[in-house]
Every structure is written in C-alpha cells, then in structure tokens.
Amino acid sequence: MSTNSRLLYFPQLLFPRLRRALTRLALSVWRDPVPLEVRRTRPVAGGFPFEKARQSALSPVAVPSAWKAPGFSTTWFRVSLPDGYTPRPDDHLHWDDNAEATAWLDGSPLFGFDATHRQWPWPKGAGEVWLESIFCQSGIWHAAAKGIGPVGSILNHARLVRKNEDAWLAYFDLEVLTDWLEEEIRRALPAEAEQLVAGFRNWPEMDSASSAFLPDGVGTGLANRWRPTLDRVSPLLRAVMRELDDAVSVYHDQGAAALRRELKKIYRRLRESGDVCKAVLTGHAHIDLVWLWPEATGEQKAVRTFATVRTLLDRYPEFHFGYSQPASYEAVERRAPGLMTQVRRQIAGGRWEATGAMYVESDTLMPCGEAILRSLLIGQERFKTLQGAPSPVLWLPDAFGFSGCLPRLMQLADVSWFFTNKLVWRMINKFPHSSFVWRGNDGAEVLAHVSRAIGYNNPARPKNLRLESEANSQADVHDEFLLPSGWGDGGGGPTADIIERVRRQADLRNQPAARWGRIDEFYARLEKVRDRLPVWRGEISLEAHRGTYTTQAEVKEVYRRLERALQTAEAARCAAGAGPVDARFWARLVFAQFHDCLPGSSVHEVYEEIVPELKRLEKEVLQDARDTLAKRAGASGEKTSAKQNETLFNPLPLPLQAWQGGKNGRLVTLPPLACSENSTTRAAESAPALVAEKNRLSNGIVEARFDRRGLLARLSVNGADALAGAPRLIAYRDVPYDLEAWEIDRQALDTGRPLALRDAGRIESGPGWAGLAQRWSRGESTVDVLWRLRAGGVALEVELKVDWREPESLLRFEAPTPFRGQTALFGAAFGGEWRLQQPGDPQQSAQWEVPANRWVMAADDGRQEGAFLLAEAKYGFSARDGIIGVSLLKSAKVTATTAFPPAFRSGPERCPWSDLGRHAIRLALGRLAADSPREAYPAALAETVFAEPLRVASGNRDAAVMPAIEGMPSMAPLWAVPVDADNWVLRLHESMGRRGTAHIAAPAGWHLSILEKALPGAADKPFPAGGEVEIGPFSFISLGLRRERDGVSHNI
Question: What's the domain range around 579?
C-alpha cells in the first residue's frame, strides 16, 4: 500500500476529477482521422434527386471551408475515399457541417447528419457516398446547433475516424453515474450543491462530437474554487463517491477497459431491488412539417430522420420508436420509396409505431369542427393503409391548446388515448394531472397521459427521468410514465447517446427504471386503473402562445375561405346526390392546420407558398360546386330562360337571406341546402324599410344610434340594449418577452390607446343595406369603418378596411356590454366554452387572450341572454367584466427573419413585420334574447352573417331535403357531408351548454339514423320513434339520411 493512501481524502474534489475523466474519454472515442475528397454540385432551390445529382457537374471543396447557397436550397456532396485506401472495420464517416445532410448510397438514404448525429459507419465495399445537404441550420434546441453565418455554412470536418469502442462505452458508463451522483448531491445538500458541482457541465458531449477534436490539455479554470465539505450525506453516497474517485484513478493508470470493470462494480452496488417507478421511453422526432423551413425542407427532414432511426433500430435491438403524421410517410414514399419499404418492415416488426391519428399534428383551436374531424378521418385512413389498422393514440406533442370537442371526435375516429408534451409550457396554472380521464364538453371520455416536466426535447439523462418521475401526479395509482426521447422540431430525433444512457438506467437506485416500450402497450396497462384516475372536463388550455390566434392574418383568412368553399362544395354534392369531393382538397386544407402553419409562427417562405395555394384551391373547390350543380341541372332536363340564367345556392343547413337582382331586386330567403332559380325563389317576409340617418341606422329589428362625434352610443335588438358604451378600436404596444409571433404579454394590456375617430361619418347604401362610413387613425395607420345594417338582419355588421403601419402593435376591437355575469361563452369547434370573465381568479387572470372559433358572448349568470361579437376569420378573443373584444392584427416580428444573412435569402425583399399593409375585416355585434330563434344564436349567425350564396350559371329546383328540427334553438346544424347518391350526413351541435329535447322529423322519402361514427355504418342507432331526441350540453350529432327508392331504404 502506498503511504500516500493515508493522506486525508477530500470527496468535494471529486467533481473536477470526473469532469476531466469525461473530457479525456470524449477526446479518445474518435481517433486516427483520414481526410476524404469532397466535391459538390451547384445548389438547386427545392432540391433534386440522387440520380440527377450523379449526372451533375462537380466542383472541389476544401475542408475546412465555408460554402454558400440560397436559403433552403439543396446541394449534393460526393465524399470519396483516398486513392488506394482500404477502409478499416471500425471506420466512421465524420461529417461536421452547420447545415444538415442525408447520406445516400446506390440511390437509397442511409443516415442523417445534423447537430446531434455526426458519425456514421462507413458502408462496406463503398468507395464513395453522396450527401444531400439542405442549406439551413442543423438542429434547433441542441447546444451544438449552429446557424448559417455571414460566410455561409461551415464544413468543419469530412473524414474517416476510427471508433474506440472501449472509450465509447466507458464514457456513457461514467456519464450516467456522474449525472446520478449530481442529482443525489442536489437532494442531500441543496445549499452546497452548486458550489460542489461548479464547472461540472463543461465537458464535450458525444452528441456534439465535433467538440471531441478539441486540443487535449485545454482547461477552463472552473475547477479552481473553494468547495464545501460533505458533512451530511448517506453512507451509500459517500461510498459511491470514493469508488468513483478510485475508478478515475484506475482509468488514468490503465485505460478505458479497466475503467469499465471498476464502474460495473458500482452499478451492481446501485442496482435497485424493486422498481419504485418505471419510465417507458419511446424514440421521438417531432418533425415540424413547416416552421423555420418550407414544406419541401420538412419532407427532406423526414427522409433524414427516418434513415437515421432505421439505422438505430438495426443497431439497438431494445430500442423503440414512434412517429405520427401520415403526411411525412407519404413524403418519404415519394422521395425514397426503398427507405419506406424498410420502414414498413420495421412497423410490422413492432418496434416502429406509426401512431398519432391525425394526418398532421394539427392546431385544434382555429379550425372548425368539421376540419378537425377530417384531420382525424384522413389520418386514420392513411394509418390503415400504412399498417392495416388505425392509430389508437392522438399524439399532439406541440399543439398550442386542445379543444374540448376532441374526446368526442376521437371516439368518432376510433381513437382511445391522448398524449401531449406541451403542457410543460404552462407558466401560471400548472396542469394538475399526469394520467386522467379527459371528459369533453359533451361528456365523451378518453384516456389521457401528459408530460408535466419534460418537453419533446429529451436527452434521457438521469435528471430528465427523475424530473418526470417526480412530476407524475398519478404515481400512486399507476407506477409508470411515458417519456418520448429525442431531439424535436428538426433536430433529427433519437441518438445513439440517448440509447446508451437508457441502457444504464434500467435499475439504478433512486431512479425510475428505464425501458424502451410501445406506446399502445403503455396505455393498455393504464386502462386497467382507469376507474381510479381523476377527471378533467373541457378544453385543456396552454396559457401561452396567445398571439398565435392572430399573427399572420392573411393565412387565417384564406384558410377560412377554403373551409367555407369545402362546405359549399359538399353541400352542392348533397343537393345533387353526388359523392364526396376530391380528397386532395381536404388533405391540403388539413395540412395547412399544422400547428406552426395556421397559427402564424412560421418563416416568410411558408406563407409565400401556402397562401397562394389556399387561394387557388378555394377557386377550384367553388368551381367544383358550380360544376356539380350544373351537371345536375343538365341531367334533370331543366330549361332556363334569359331571366333564369343565374341560380343562387345556399350552402348552409340554415335559411340564408340574400339580395337578388341588383339595385331593383328583392330580399329573398333561400331554404337550407337549396338551389333556387330566380323565378321560384321565395321572397323574404316583409320587413320595415331601412332607415339611414346621420346618427341613426335601423331595419326595424336592430337600431344603432351614434353621438355627435360619431361614436356608437346605443345598439338595441328588438328594443333591448346590447351595449353599455361605445365600441373602440384600440392599439396596444406589443413587445413580448420572447417568441414575438407566439406571445402577448399581460403587460401589453396596460398600454392601450384608442384610435382617433376622424369624422362623424357619412351615410352609404347599397342593394338591401345601409350604413355609416367613418375613418379612424393612429399615426400613419388608417381604418375605414362601415357600420352596416342589412334589411331583415339581426346583427350590426362592422366592416373594416385597414391600412396598418404600426410595427410591434396589437390592434383590437372592444365593446362594453351590460352583461357582467361570472362567465362568458366563447365559440369553439362543435360547441362552446364557458370561461370566467370576472377578474381576481388566477385562472381567469391567465385568460387575457383566449382562443375562440369566431365568436364570444358576454352573459348574465342566468346564461339565457347576452351580447355577442362575431368575426369572419378572427380567433383571439377576450371577455373581462362585460367588455368583449377581438384581436384583429398583430404586427410581430416574423419568425426567424434573420435566420439567413441577406445574401442567402432567396426571393424578393420581405417586410420583417407580419400584418403590416391592407386588410379587409368583417365583424358583427348583436344580442341574444331568451326567446331568440335558432337563426339568431351566435353559433348560427357566425355562419350566416358572413355567408354569400353561390351564384351559378344554371341550376335546378332540387335540394338536399332537410329534416325539420323543432325545439332546442341552441342546436345548430352547420355542415352537410355527401356520401353517395342516396346517403348524406348532417352535422349538428348544441352551442350553449344546455339540455333539452329536440323533435327531428324525417323528410318524405328519407330515413334518419343517429350515427355512431363520423360516417354511416352497421352500428348506427335507429332513430327514436316519434323523432324526440334528447340533447345534452354541447352535444354533437351526426344525423344520417338515407333515401328511399320504391319504398326501400338504400344504405351505403
């Protein structure tokens, strides 16, 4: 024994020694570099295939060097072995570039290179590989992710390196134990922990392997500071620290293999005798289909990630991976069919789970209910095609809140379980549950499990597992939690590092027992304790990203127009007895619902592509509706005269008033889903003449009075007041703490300044309407406001033509009402949400901006009447103490405006601010009375006020014959779904949270049924005798209509 062993031992000096040992190990994993020859093609916008790259002219590339290309363009690199070089068995390609790339061999993608994936085994027998490189930042959230700088993308390394397997394995053996030790020290000595571990985290990590080529012997000086003694630690911890210290000495003396032998002894000591809690891990990538990149780049990211995961599944037999979004699988099928064949095999083998239910990871707050349902139906259809069965899980790791209609829609689409990571972003009211029964607004229930500590970027360190374990609030009932692991958004997904760490955390003392497993099997086990889980009712709000309901106004507007066009086309097909519309229309609308597209949080390039596409699709879909009706007219043999050469078609399952015939025309009422020729259109019931005076507008139902300044002083409906003061346009200074496109700070509400009303206004009129036109302004910005009443209308319309020039501002419309009850009702997909409007409660105070599906109503506590505000295509609302408001424009900094230096930006010069410029916005104000008819409820008016009938060149007298609905006026029929010539479906939902009975009578020659799923099937319920249907709060009904021919009901 050395006499030095009798010296006093200082355990507080262990952490600097561990850091040094980890650094040495990292530096010794990849050795003996061999430079490779690199040549490249010219960059091409949007990419080009491997076959074309092989035929392209190549230019030599020096390494290291910077290379330049237009943003998001594709450059192919050919990487070749030196002449006469024979690869060694342990040779790996080390490719270190700021951009991201996918390695290809013989026309197939093999592996992805990015900030978290730098090495890949050189393929046997290959003399060269090709790398498809996208000129954009590699990775997002990892510390090694670097952007594109002024000189371009820096290619640091292109070489072969040999892998020292002993050093690789010893590194993770020591890293996991060191992480474990740090967590134990933080628990045992919370006051002294920071001083003990000072400088501890500054060693090179394997998943940023370029740092493994730092010059040896470089220090930080961070270890040179006083460290407290360990006076109060457990005997186990003290023993482990000494054994780790001794193991480091063995490593320095005998090398990595000897270190591994010593560390195995410590792992045996720390082996947990019984599992306290189990972590079920699944590999996770969470690819943003668009965000900081356009759609084509998102598809390339899918190819890169799928190739990487396939390699990891081959290398690690215990590893499991799950991926959602059929849109990505389709993209990989187009771009790399051979890779997709291999993915299918891995799905069939059970370790790759194709799961998620929706076609894309969709927003669920702004799409209408039918659009959310179609995302599920399209997604489930594609999952069946991919793997022979639908997905049992709705997987939404990054959506910005979750609508209360989801549990019902999930049931309609055969989805039983729900998962998200996103609730870790909540900043005020922590979500209380990990595992729970989610009860939707209408009472439908699904089983849910959510992460409460770790988001979708998870390196699976002991700290990550322990945090999620401690946050598992249902651990007393179910001793497991689900933990997706990998780098998300665009970072490439799981890594070998993550899998190595998990291997070492299977049975560490005081740690969750970590295992890879299947998502569906986790939920199947959770089902066994379902009856013991808490219940959460209604929406699951994020309490963050409030600005996304408003940012990028144009994409929201054109998206909503395409929704309405599809509603029109499907109604036309129901009327004509035709089948469904072309599936591609719905697929592209649903794609636009992706949670970074419709919310407005993506880069310029995304909207430069999606907005024109949505506009084009709207035209195509409306033309489909016209063609459908025209074909039906031709088939029926109807003849039209010169006076009958235009037909109005009502695409709504509600009566629609329209003006027909120009200046000398008349107000007509179009029956639901009906196509009527001019000569047969029914005139609307006579209404009092429109009155339009300087300070007064009236149509006999609604009266608006203006004061001498031009402010709206009174609004009444059938003599009852709707407002308690003048509505205002208010501009708020909008400089959020972070993520400008996403957030609205609470403090912004303290900065509001009303726009100035420049004149009292002038009277304007047109066929069937009259109004008062005014101009409001702020600085160089102007808003032309038209307060308009239509003949027979039950709401005051507010049309705004905005020329907005104020960066970093939020423009809102706010209206005081006399309805100051405890709650207000906000429109939601297939229903509504009652939310607190009185201040003081933390939950209410966190709702300074909330999502609503185009309307809000302030109410008294009786909830029978109220004042409402409708919007054509706006989704950010508020209700505070009777004041209802809607956000119109948010001129935030466009996401990643400076991601590329100007020299690498393709296309025209772009404004760095969203929503500056000209906008046309439509709102409406009104009042609901206790005895209002169905057509006067806000859910119905949000459809009819902004609707226009479809005008077609020729038509017919046929229509989709509507069932008669009596009672429950809060029940809104909103969508007609075509099935075939003899079947269609009517969607209805209750919009106020009321209970009652409706009487629904079948039209002559038709049978009714209540569908169990979204479309007709064998399990549908017979319609109640007598037509009495019990309606629950916010209930949703799919009503099947089957035509009788010759007395026989024709089913699909």
Answer: 553-637+951-1049
